[in-house]
Model the fold of this input.
Amino acid sequence: MNWGLGREAFGIRPEKPLKSLIIQAENDTGDLAEMVQGSLTAMKIKPNEDTFKALKTHLEIRRLTSATGEEFADGARTLIGKYKPDIVWLDPLLSFIGDDISRQDVCSYFLRNLLNPIAFESGVTWMMMHHTPKPSADPKSKTGWNRTDHSYAGTGSAELTNWASAVCLLRSTRDEGRFQLVLAKRGKRAGATDLEGNRTTSINLKHVDDGILWEQTPEPVLIKAAPKSKKPKKTVERLDELIAKIDKPMKKSKIIALAEEDGHSTKYIAQRDWSIIAKKLKNNSDKTFQNKN
Done:
């Protein structure tokens, strides 16, 4: 809608008002009306304003729910010839391709043999809404991905990404109601900016409170949790007092038992710290120990 009015969206400004044709197969008329009305409310555009009239001449939405493959391409060519759009949005791609999207030959035929000729004839730009696959059972499966890797996040053949001039990924974040639009392929060329006017390839978003519209948000501030303080390591208590009690030769086992009986430590701690205890004792030739006094 912003591009239809010649306005920038997330720092991306069109050279002129762009006319969009949205070919829709997923939402019914009521859903579409709710989205359009919600966006108009959030953008504070009223039906009696010139802005509304200008938008009407730059936005067409048509439902095409049963045509796929070649039949879809014929229908799209007819609509493009009638409305003369700059951008054609397909929502969603899976509704129109008509075959197994995981196969490269299927994708190549649909994109290169059917859609490319239409784009070359008319000069339109294809913008496709596409789904990601079901989440992996491994929550860490994409932790090592960089920005470019996300251009392959859509379900299906890599040919989808190879064909596309640019790819964006809309994903949720750990913060409820917050999202991120990743400009994954050729993102730097888009000219997108954050709220401070700095170039970016990652746009933070949320839904506005009073309509159906994306609102850009500041970069989230990461607050590192304070490291948990470690509990002090337990040691032999009143060590000198324990050493004083060993005034006659004793076996190691007897000394450990003495430390436990008299409350200096547990058996485990005395065994663990035996080297500390032994340093303060005289080591007799018969493998007994006693204090050095």
